[in-house]
Amino acid sequence: MNSFNLIAKLRQLAAMLLLALPLVSGAADQQTFATPEAAVDAMMAALKTDSDAAMLSIFGEEQKDLIIQPDRAAVSATRAKILAAMQTLHVLH
């Protein structure tokens, strides 16, 4: 799989997660978005700030155990990789 396909898959996965989590969790404290693009923009902003609070505001407190992990360095590195992939694809569109 080339890097373009990987980036495309990561972006699709992020968008699907942002749109699907409200259906799965049913939490009232998570954000909803008018468009998929607005959801992706919010996700990119949260990744850019590497903020647990921003991620929690998007996904809700019910997802706290998935968002806040003990290995902060690994979480930050993963978020940076996802953001870079999303930014690359965002520029290509």
Report the average pLDDT across residues.
80
Q: So how many helices? A: 5
Specify Rg, calculated over alpha carbons: 13 Å
| Beta-strand percentage range | under 5%
Largest β sheet strand count, sense and barrel closure: none
Task: Report the structural category.
Answer: mainly alpha
Principal-axes geometry comes out as globular
Termini Cα gap = 20 Å
- What order do the helices and strands follow? HHHHH
Strand elements, count: 0
The parts where pLDDT drops under 50 for at least 5 residues are: none
Helix content: over 70%
Molecular structure report:
75% of the residues lie in helices and 0% in strands. The chain is mostly helical. Helix 1 (3-25) crosses helix 2 and helix 1 packs across helix 5. 14% of the residues are buried. The mean pLDDT is 80.
Question: Which structural traits does this protein have?
Answer:
75% helix; 93 residues
Briefly say what this structure is.
By secondary structure, this protein is mainly alpha-helical. It has helices at 3-25, 36-49, 52-59, 64-67, 72-92. The model has no long low-confidence stretch (mean pLDDT 80).
Topology:
Elements: H1 3-25, H2 36-49, H3 52-59, H4 64-67, H5 72-92
